[in-house]
Design goal:
85 residues, mainly alpha, 3 helices, 84% helix, 0% strand
Length: 85
């Protein structure tokens, strides 16, 4: 009987360690999720407004090449787009 009580008492200290491990595990999972989102955002797969001005500049260059806009309008809009970057 004494051995059973001693064994039960010895394992009680691991409840605190188990709670700590659960918090550590949740922290690691959260860190991995945040890291993945940041990595995807940097690679350009997830777009939060980055690269918008270069896309606008591509459209402007295409319109100028097609002759849809005059040189003065092109230069004015290009200046505006580059000021945003």
């Amino acid at each position: 009987m004494y051995a059973l009580l001693l064994w039960t008492y010895d394992w009680r200290g691991f409840w605190i360690f188990g709670g700590f491990m659960m918090l550590l595990f949740c922290g690691v999972v959260l860190f991995l999720i945040i890291g993945s989102v940041r990595m995807l955002a940097r690679s350009g797969r997830v777009c939060y407004g980055h690269g918008q001005s270069s896309h606008a500049l591509d459209i402007l260059n295409e319109r100028y090449a097609k002759g849809e806009i005059a040189k003065e309008e092109y230069e004015s809009k290009k200046k505006d787009i580059l000021a945003i970057q």
